[in-house]
Amino acid sequence: MAFRSQAMPGVALITGAASGIGLATAVVFVEEGVTRLVLADINYDGLATASRQLQEINPKVETCLVKCDTSVEEEVENMVTEGVKKFGAIHYAVNNAGITSRIRIKTHLLQTEEWDKVQGVNLRGVWLCQRAELRQMMKQEAELSTRTGAPPERGAIVNISSLFAIITHPTVGAYSATKAGVLGMTRTDAVAYATDGIRINSVLPGFVKTPMVEESMRRGADYEPIINTIPIKRWGKPSEVAQAIVFLCSDRASMITGEALCVSGAKEF
Ligand code: NAI
Fold it and tell me: By percentage, how much of the chain surpasses pLDDT 70?
């Protein structure tokens, strides 16, 4: 089947889709014409609410909701299996599920369990998802036609890293390590799959007001001094990150792979 390039025609999979940037990404996919979405999260009730929200935007939207802890191999395998069982393919995959360290503390105070937990979701989890998605995409035909005239694609993956992969703060060592790891994995696999019609990019959000950040603020993190150092002088919105993610999945980005796109109001400069 050859898809037309006017609306985004494929099946989208998003992890961490019940909240924040993941939910906003699902909304933008639907606004861009995607009608088949695999939504995964540990929070199933949140997915059900998200699904209703998407169907309000477009009643033709079909969702496959999967309760999935992305740090658990079997659950990640099951997520892709369920999505393919319902929709037959996965074309756009956004590996977004992530957590921060429980408390922002310096390394000498950090417990090994906390390091393992953050690594498990933010790095191992993204790798497990990417591997499962690549295994599926490699089975698919290159059927996504591009309006740019580039060869048809099998799919596109976007991994959510963080500005903390490239800037420093004394208390986010464990988190930064995972997010820098995501950049390395993205670049390497972008090269490895470049001739297979699969593009892989990462997005580095800066400071975005989401439930994750609000929870961190409740635990005492004071972001305001940091926000004042951002050249654009404000919080990012989940929808602003989502626009970048969906662009990188779309056929408009057909020559873009292996990139790390900051959505940060110029904080990295
Ligand atoms: P959020 O907390 O609003 O959403 C994260 C979602 O992931 C939640 O629905 C949560 O239930 C889900 N989740 C957590 N652990 C999971 C697991 N093991 N398996 C499946 N789902 C799981 O957070 P937000 O801010 O939307 O974060 C999304 C991504 O963006 C994360 O990877 C985060 O590190 C990254 N990010 C966020 C920034 C921000 O300022 N909000 C800045 C830089 C990166």
Answer: 96
Whether this model's pTM surpasses 0.95:
yes
Q: Is the pLDDT of residue 63 over 50?
A: yes
C-alpha distance from residue 194 to each of 28, 170, 185, 216 (Å): 26, 36, 14, 38
Which of the residues 92, 175, 193, 223 is marked catalytic? 175
User: Domains in the chain, ordered, with CATH?
Assistant: 11-263 (3.40.50.720)
| CA 25/CA 96 separation, integer angstroms | 10
176 CB-near residues (< 8 Å, 6+ apart): 162, 164, 165, 168, 169
256: amino acid identity, one letter: I
Average pLDDT of the chain, as a whole number: 94
Distance, in Å, from the CA atom of 179 to the CA atom of 14, rounded to the nearest integer, reads 18
ipTM above 0.90, yes or no: yes
Contact predicate 54/23, CB 8 Å? no
pLDDT at site 103: 62
Which residues does a 6 A CB cutoff place in the pocket of ligand 1? 15-16, 18-22, 41-43, 46, 68-71, 96-99, 121, 125, 160, 162, 205, 207-208, 210-213
pLDDT of 86-127, one tens digit each? 999 999 999 999 998 656 678 898 899 999 999 999 999 999
Q: Which atom of ligand 1 is the closest one to the Cα of 43?
A: 11
Centre of ligand 1 from the C-alpha of residue 67, in Å: 15
